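Researcher: I'd like a structural prediction for the single chain below. Treat it as a standalone chain; there are no partners to consider.
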Amino acid sequence: MNTGLLVDILRCPRCGRDLVGSDGSLICSERHSFPYRDNVVDFSSVDQIDPLQQRSQKSFGIEWSRYYAALGWSRDEIAAETEMFLTYTRAMPNFFSNRIVVDAGCGNGRYINILNQIAIPPPELIIGIDLSESIFVAAKNCAKYANVIFIKMNLNLLDRILKKPVDYVYSIGVLHHTPDAKGAFDHLANCLKPDGFLSVYLYGKGNPLLYRVNSYLRNQFFQNWPPKLVYYLMVFIAIPGQIFRLKFIGPWLCDFFNRFVFISYDVHNMFDAYTAGYTSFHSKTEVEGWYRSNRLDCVVESQQNHTALFCIGRKTGQ
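Model: Treating it as a single chain, here is the predicted structure.
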């Protein structure tokens, strides 16, 4: 991606002035400088994050760089990842064609790859955002695409750095790992054009017992564990969890056990759930209020024993 397009769409996150490209960096007239390499603009120095956010930054960097750098990229995984993306966003492929799209929390870039395959024609531009080191994995994975740029930063900066609003923002499994999920949602909503879309996937509160157990495990029990130790524990738990794959009895057993505690045959999902510094849980009514307070029509679906919220909203005209 050439720096000309970058300076057309981005402004300095410190002072709001225009940026220019200069020897592997972007610089504003106030001489604020930000590295730019391997198609990644690094704005991460702008915000100081607290220790719990640092834990999330570290754990997700490890997850997507060390354990799951290629998850979702193989030919065999594309169909499943496509179904997952459309389920979580509640979108149709043509919603993204010729649009400017933001992936808020892009991980290893797998959904950016999906978007460029299912939208015909593809998006005009996709902006991938992540605070962890996985942003460089995503940039490497997506190097073949000319319509993608990446920004390493706190997603709460998005409405500060964009020069113009965008057509679509999606954030899958990210906001509930931020210190203030509602505040992060508001920042994303501020970036939309009239008639633009915002899709989010969030943890739901579930039944009271499940909510209390999962809250304790995520926010207390595993809080100080090294990510490597959590990962190997999840690998161990996933072995008996393979019974959930059996026809007929498997889905019933999965539904039964996950009424009390989240366990799975999928190591990735368990590791993702239990290693973040912050984790919050939200109700359907609460998230509908987030959309409406930002002047978005919405559909919020509570699924999987109310442990997951699949949400989409459209910004009404100004």
